[in-house]
Design goal:
51% helix, disordered N terminus, Retrotransposon Copia-like N-terminal domain-containing protein
Amino acid sequence: MLTLLISQTEDSFTAAAPADVVYVQDVQEDVVIPSSLKFLISKIKSIIPIQLSNKNYSTWRSQILKLFRANNYSGFLDKNTSVPSHITTDSTITSRPNVAYSRWIIADQNLAAAICSTIFVGILPYVLHLDNCADIWSTLEWRLQAMNRSRVIHLKKELHHIAIGQQTMLQYLANIKTLVDNIAAAWCPIDNEDILLYTLNGLPP
């Protein structure tokens, strides 16, 4: 590993540093991308074939979260997770670029790109200006959870007023199942007794 000394007069960062701190720049080999990260970014679209829209946030979120947890990257979705410092200082008061930060930024930016690849083009403008995974994740949560709640209210209203009308019994039950499944996908499961009540209420006397 080659170490290059950086003069305080030549580097704007070190110009404001204490006089007793020596800054060095490490020229290192490229940071190796972990196999788990390679797997996640190469397989994410096949594992999660749906694209995030304003109608499937809960399902999409659940799948992304499971995939990130399985590969030990869920911390990148949490804004409270600490980010490594750009610079590290050793016992000799020598400061150098932090390898941990280099690894973090490579993982974070690849994960951010992977997440964006699963987002519908109509949703992308919400997050394209954001710099890291945690900001993308929290922004999507903030914007789409409200839409999700409105959708659940609408679906429950449909279920409450559903009627067999001119449908066959098979079509009627299939429509009820679709509504119930969509509501459950938004983390609002309905009790079986309530489903039975809605079903009976929609039948003719």
